């Protein structure tokens, strides 16, 4: 998969989003898909920038790959390289993977906000994670070797 390492700052976030958009355009993705990719990227990276490194600035790595079907199962492709996937996905989607060495945080375990409460009764936050879930076909999180790894199929 093709990826970019960024500093977990607003400038780094903008650089990663440019990387994702450029790759999606190069792969002739539909405009709707590109918008979804950028919204997911913005929400996840915003959380990394704001919360992963509270006392310092760290790095994040963002990867983007095409999800393809092969005779032996699903794989992520970029050019001639393929990597088997560990979970079931649908054809012709894209895999966004976010990796950081910040505070361990599994966004898939975060409580869903009650969007039916009146606005003045809703707590601040958590809507970004709901948006990521709503725009994704599949999400997977793991914490490995001191790193948060969030994989999102869009």
Structure description:
This protein is α+β, with helices and mostly antiparallel strands. It has helices at residues 10-26, 31-52, 127-135, and strands spanning 2-7, 59-70, 73-78, 81-84, 94-100, 138-144, 147-153. Strands 1, 2, 3, 4, 5, 6 and 7 form a 7-stranded antiparallel beta sheet that branches. A hairpin with a 2-residue loop joins strand 2 (59-70) and strand 3 (73-78). Helix 1 runs antiparallel to helix 2 and helix 2 packs antiparallel against helix 3 (127-135). The longest helix has 22 residues, at 31-52. The radius of gyration is 16 Å and the shape is globular. It starts with a strand and ends with a strand. 27% of the residues are buried. The mean pLDDT is 85.
Which percent bin holds the helix content? 25-40%
Q: What is the CA–CA distance across the termini?
A: 15 Å
Q: Which residue ranges are poorly predicted, with pLDDT under 50 across at least 5 consecutive positions?
A: none
H/E topology pattern: EHHEEEEHEE
**Assembly status:** single chain
Radius of gyration: 16 Å
Number of β-strand runs = 7
Average pLDDT level: 85
Number of helices in the DSSP assignment: 3
Approximate shape: globular
Structural class: alpha+beta
Beta content: 25-35%
> Main beta sheet, described?
7 strands, antiparallel
